[in-house]
Structure formats: structure tokens, C-alpha cells
Write a structure and sequence with these properties.
The protein is of the alpha/beta class and 499 residues long. It has helices spanning 41-60, 63-79, 81-92, 96-113, 116-119, 155-166, 181-192, 207-215, 228-240, 263-275, 293-309, 328-344, 379-382, 398-407, 421-430, 466-472, and strands at 3-4, 7-9, 12-14, 21-26, 31-37, 124-129, 132-140, 143-147, 170-174, 200-202, 219-225, 244-248, 254-257, 287-290, 347-350, 369-372, 389-392, 410-411, 413-417, 435-438, 454-455, 474-482.
């Protein structure tokens, strides 16, 4: 029987009232397993009102008490890791090991947020002028919201609400309607951790809910992760309505392979970074750029047999390297890009189309796909495919190779594989990309640093999590003070004594 999901508002599951629903599939079978309600603007307003009512008391709570809630929430995440990973896999399709990593990386931001008593401290200058001291405070904004994508339904919500709530804000998550159950479960666990009702709310929905959040006068800030076109829309619309906005967007990350690279490591790294999680990562590595034909030929010769050994399976198969993509529509989209690249002149070496699994013939599976001789003028190269497709673009020099990610419309991540420290240092300094890996294929920063791309990969002035996250979710108030002259002998000034 198909389950009907709910919203989560003011500490309670709330049935949808709009009458509109979206199907939630099991990507392994293609069967509808649940229906999620799509909120109306009125329902969004109800969630904002609940968050607004909870804000004064939560903001006034001292930071170490807010941190204790974060500590308890982290403990609950560890206790419920298996449950969360299996729930995530059942809706997204990624294998359970990847789902555990999704939860783990989100939990690391919660660990960072446990340090909020230190992170939210301001600055102090004694004697800035005659008898004048100056100090600053980082104060919460109020009701804030996060609009999160399907590909990391645990990590990205926690990237956002972990820091925002620790800073004293109250929060509304609008998760992807494709896999909303994990954000709903996170909200339940957060209440169990001791957060007051209304501090963390979940509203399911589509564009109507997004627009309601962007336009609501009581929502002070919006964080978004998703496609570039929608990120641009969110950034523009949010700014138009006076909101603080950060909008992380699409990607087409490159891996530069120099002739001196450890090819054993390179092959292992590309297998995981290009095909892991079916390529549905904004930090996947879908473009390989070998420098020199000899390097390219060796890379191809080594990759083809290893790719053919990859096992695509259902998400609960512990031997599978990756599972299905998230939806039938996304499967069609990825397969259309494979056809496009072939039509544009890319040399198809491994074709992942037409893959079916016995007993799961209607699942959304795509096999690993490899192209050689892709060029920078191909649309299949300039667009984000977001699937298990690796394109090889050959370069003859490091300068030519580095120009590819620097000139690409996206600038999320890039990696270079080499034993040459000077070449790596120069590359990292000059490449026009927001996150760089040196012999690291997926350079996602740890939680106490920040995540963010350049160009059409980010429509924002601040990055996700880390200390920039604290700055984004707070406003600075600066106080300049001077006290009138007086005498300590004045009886109106009483020094406490032990008596």
C-alpha cells in the first residue's frame, strides 16, 4: 500500500491540505512507494508562523545550551545511522554505504556546530578612543530556510540547519519531493534531542512552496543547492524580496592527469569519483583531462577493463559499486546525453545504456559509460550530465588542460594528479575554480572549512558551513561605549563583598 507522507511543523506531523501530491519512487523497482504532499502558500505561512513563535526563546537561550542540543542530536544520528542510511537508499537509490557517508558528512557539520559558543563570539577593542571601548555581536537573523536537492537528502539539510539553528535561528527545510523521508526523520530526531517545537520544520513542496518562502516577509535568509538555472532564480527572487541568499548550483568538474601521476591511484580515484553514487554528485569527476597522448592512451587502456568490472546493483546489495539513478525521467535525461555525445563525435568506448537487472527490470539503472576524444565545443561537455558518464578530453600541455576548467561555465571543483609539487602549486593558485584537489578526486572540504564554487556553480557571496556559514546565518551588531566619569567612592557604586 502506498504511504502518504506529511509535513513536520511545530514538532508534529501535519497532513497536507492542498490536495496536491508528488510520487516518491523506489528507484530499484520503479514502483511508487509513497506520496508526498505539495504545500500551498498558506501551509508555508503556517510553518513560518510556527518558526517565528519559537524564535525569541531559542535566540535568547545561551549558546552552550544550544550546543548541548547539537551534542544530543549528534548522538542520536550515530544511534540511528543504519535506519537513516536504509531509508535514504530506499528513496534515492544510492547504495547503503554511500548513504551512510551522506549521513556522516552531515553529522560532521553538526559536530562543528557544537562549538557555537566559541564560533559566535564577537570582537572587542579596549581603549579605541579616550575611555571608549568597541565590541561586536553575532546575532541570529530570525526565521530562515533551506531548499535542498535530491542527491544528498541528509548531508545538505544538515549543512544548512546545523549552523543556522546553533546560531539561534529557527529553520524551515523544503526538501526535494523525490526523497523527503530523511529530512522528516531528522526533524523528529532534532525534537528528541531537546530542541523546542517549531525550531526545525519541514515543508514538502514544489515551486509554489519555494516561491512562498522566497516572498514571505518573515523569512530572513534562504540557502539553496540545486541546478544553476533555479539557483539563479532563487538568488534573484530572494534578493528582490530583501533576503540574504546563498545559492549553490551545477558543476562539471575536471581531473587533470599529468604524465608523472601515479596511474594506479588515478584509475582507482576516477572509478569512485566518476561513477560512485551513479554520478549524482555536484562534486563528481565526470571529465578526465590527460596531458599528452601517451598519458591519455594509458589512462584509457587501464580504465576500460576496470569500468567493465564495476557492479551496478540494487541499493541494498553490499557488493554493488553503485545503484540506480533517482527517477525514470533522470535516466532518460542521462541516456539522451550519451546519445548526444556520440552524435557530436565523442568516441563511445563503454556504453551503459540498456542495463537491466533480473527481477528489477523497471528500475532506473544506467551502466558506467566512457567517452574518449570529447572536445570543449560539444554541448555534452559544456552541460552537466549528472550521471555515470566519464568524458575524456585530451590536452597536450598543462596550460591547455588548466584552461578547460578555468574557461568552463561551471567552477565547482577540480583535481590535479601529479608528483610535481611546483606544478600542483601553480595550478591550485591560478585555476578559476572554487575547490581544488591535489591527488584528491573529490575535494569536498571538511566541515570546519567551507564549501562553495565559482561562476555558474554559485550565486552567492558566502560559502556553505564553516566560519562563513556562521557569518551567513548571523548579523553583526557593533557597540561603541563610553561611561561618564565617576568616583569609586560614590555610594551609588557598590562593590560586592563576600560578607
Amino acid at each position: 500500500m502506498t504511504r502518504e507522507l506529511s509535513h513536520y511543523v511545530n514538532g508534529e506531523a501535519v497532513s497536507g491540505k492542498s490536495g496536491r501530491f508528488s510520487d516518491v519512487y523506489d528507484p530499484n523497482t520503479g514502483i511508487v512507494q509513497a506520496k508526498t504532499p505539495l504545500a500551498s502558500a498558506v501551509e508555508v505561512s503556517d510553518a513560518v508562523a510556527a518558526a517565528q513563535a519559537a524564535f525569541p526563546a531559542w535566540a535568547a537561550m545561551n549558546p552552550q545550551r544550544r550546543a548541548r542540543v547539537m551534542f544530543r542530536f549528534k548522538d542520536l544520528l550515530e544511534q540511528h545511522m543504519d535506519e537513516l542510511a536504509e531509508l535514504l537508499s530506499s528513496e534515492h537509490g544510492k547504495v547503503v554505504a554511500d548513504s551512510r557517508g551522506d549521513v556522516q558528512r552531515g553529522m560532521e557539520v553538526i559536530e562543528f556546530a557544537c562549538g557555537i559558543p566559541h564560533l559566535q563570539k564577537g570582537e572587542y577593542t579596549e581603549g579605541a578612543g579616550p575611555g571608549i571601548d568597541v565590541y561586536s555581536m553575532h546575532q541570529p537573523l530570525g526565521v530562515v530556510a533551506g531548499i535542498t536537492p535530491f542527491n544528498f537528502p541528509a548531508m545538505i539539510p544538515m549543512w544548512m540547519f546545523g549552523v543556522a539553528i546553533a546560531c539561534g535561528n529557527t529553520f524551515i527545510i523544503k526538501p526535494s519531493e523525490k526523497d523527503p523521508s530523511v529530512p522528516l526523520r531528522l526533524a523528529e530526531l532534532f525534537l528528541e534531542a531537546g530542541a523546542p517545537k517549531g525550531v526545525l520544520n519541514v515543508i514538502n513542496g514544489d515551486k509554489e512552496a519555494v516561491d512562498a518562502l522566497l516572498e514571505h516577509p518573515d523569512v530572513k535568509a534562504i540557502s539553496f543547492v540545486g541546478s544553476s538555472d533555479i539557483a539563479h532564480y532563487v538568488s534573484h527572487t530572494g534578493a528582490k524580496h530583501g533576503k540574504r541568499v546563498q545559492a549553490m548550483a551545477g558543476a562539471k568538474n575536471h581531473g587533470i592527469i599529468l604524465p608523472d601521476a601515479d596511474m594506479d591511484q588515478v584509475v582507482r580515484d576516477f572509478l569512485g569519483a566518476a561513477f560512485g553514487s551513479a554520478g549524482e554528485r555536484c562534486m563528481a569527476l565526470p571529465v578526465a583531462v590527460p596531458v599528452g597522448d601517451a598519458t591519455a592512451d594509458e589512462f584509457i587502456a587501464r580504465m576500460v577493463p576496470e569500468i567493465k568490472k564495476l557492479k551496478v546493483g540494487i541499493s541494498t546489495d553490499s557488493d554493488a559499486h553503485y545503484g540506480p539513478v533517482v527517477s525514470a525521467a533522470h535516466k532518460v535525461r542521462v541516456e539522451n546525453y550519451i546519445a548526444m555525445c556520440e552524435e557530436e563525435g565523442g568516441k563511445l568506448l563503454v556504453d551503459g545504456r540498456g542495463l537491466t537487472l533480473q527481477g528489477h527490470e523497471n528500475g532506473f539503472f544506467i551502466g558506467p559509460t566512457l567517452f574518449d576524444h570529447v572536445t570543449a565545443d560539444m554541448r555534452s561537455y559544456t552541460d552537466e550530465i549528472f550521471g555515470p558518464v566519464l568524458q575524456v578530453v585530451r590536452a597536450q600541455t598543462l596550460e591547455e588542460a588548466a584552461a578547460l576548467p578555468s574557461n568552463h561555465q561551471y567552477g565547482n571543483g577540480v583535481a590535479i594528479f601529479t608528483r610535481n609539487g611546483l606544478a600542483a602549486r601553480e595550478f591550485a593558485a591560478k585555476v578559476q575554480v572554487g575547490m581544488v584537489g591535489i591527488n584528491v578526486p573529490i575535494p569536498v572540504p571538511v566541515a570546519y572549512h567551507t564549501f562553495g564554487g565559482w561562476k555558474r556553480s554559485a550565486f552567492a557571496d558566502t560559502n556553505q558551513h564553516g566560519t562563513e556559514g556562521v557569518r551567513f546565518w548571523t548579523k553583526i551588531k557593533t557597540v561603541t561605549q563610553r561611561w561618564p566619569d565617576g568616583s569609586v567612592d560614590d555610594q551609588s557604586f557598590i562593590i560586592p563583598t563576600m560578607g
